[in-house]
Design a protein that fits this description.
Layout lengths: L1 E3 L2 H13 L4 E6 L5 H13 L2 E6 L9 H6 L4 H10 L4 E3 L3 H4 L19 H4 L3 H16 L3 E5 L3 H13 L6 E5 L19 H6 L2 H12 L5 H14 L3 E9 L13 E9 L2 E8 L2
Parallel strand pairs: 1-4, 2-3, 2-5, 3-4, 5-6
Antiparallel strand pairs: 7-8, 8-9
């Protein structure tokens, strides 16, 4: 595996590979890697000549500075895992390579995606996501970009980013959420859960699964209110449990729509998210 820390040197390297006809699969990460990340690498490996990963904990997407400070950092372990899972190139930039002194933040027109669900509860978060993804795509310019479905709304934001920055040549490849045996969605934040919190955390997926069973027999409003109550009773502080239209992420009004259930809830100060398509 080749390691780069400077934007200019990895850009030149990628240009050379593309000139030789190589396809580039890119997996952006914030480190603390887990099986979800490795599934993206494996998919990229099957579909491309070269797999590039980045590790960069992006400060601009954290609307809570304490969350940024506490985000798990496991670089040595991550590097070993990337080698083991067949990553060809790692981009490990310091902050000034992503946001150099002359960097001017843009405003990205994300429409309603920025006002609902995560956009509502984490103001500025998706602008920060767009800033870092836009910069990484400028530096890497991949053939395909790989993301996980656990961050359902983020996947839609990145799809929108590709449209508004006119990158039709980059394919967005979205992989299914990878879960623990008890249903808990793989997440770097899971490393922060203590033993008791870890036992409670699968309740998010349990409520999503229950909503899928109930969607043909109960009103959507009842399913949502019951899910919030069940999670609250188990010690969660719920930001939202929403059943939304899969395309727009606006609250669904009919079970005939293409539906996704999405949840965000805190266990103490650890915020967990998950989602499940319902039909």
């Amino acid at each position: 595996m080749v390691l780069f820390k400077q934007a200019k040197t990895i850009t030149n390297y990628i240009i050379g590979k593309k000139a030789a006809g190589k396809t580039i699969g890119f997996v952006p990460t914030m480190g603390a890697l887990h099986a979800g990340h490795f599934s993206l690498i494996e998919q990229a490996r099957k579909e491309n000549d070269l797999v590039v990963c980045s590790i960069f904990v992006n400060p601009t997407q954290f609307n809570n500075p304490e969350d940024f400070k506490k985000y798990p950092v496991t670089i040595e372990k991550d590097v070993e895992a990337l080698i083991k899972h067949g990553c060809d190139v790692l981009f490990l930039p310091p902050q000034q390579e992503i946001y150099p002194p002359a960097y001017q933040p843009k405003h990205y027109d994300l429409g309603t995606l920025e006002t609902v669900l995560e956009g509502h509860y984490r103001p500025g978060h998706f602008q920060g996501v767009c800033q870092v993804v836009d910069r990484l795509l400028q530096i890497i310019a991949p053939t395909s970009l790989y993301l996980g479905q656990k961050d359902f709304q983020q996947c839609q934001v990145v799809q929108r980013l590709l449209q508004i920055t006119n990158r039709p040549d980059i394919k967005l490849r979205i992989s299914p959420t990878v879960r623990q045996q008890d249903g808990l969605a793989m997440s770097s934040r899971n490393l922060r859960l203590d033993e008791m919190q870890r036992e409670k955390a699968p309740a998010l997926f349990e409520e999503l699964s229950q909503s899928k069973k109930a969607v043909s027999t109960k009103p959507l409003s009842q399913i949502k209110s019951e899910a919030v109550q069940h999670l609250t009773d188990k010690g969660f502080k719920v930001d939202y449990f929403e059943i939304a239209d899969r395309a727009t992420l606006t609250p669904a009004t009919s079970a005939a729509q293409p539906l996704v259930a999405l949840v965000a809830a805190y266990l103490c100060d650890i915020r967990l998210i998950d989602n499940l398509s319902l039909n």
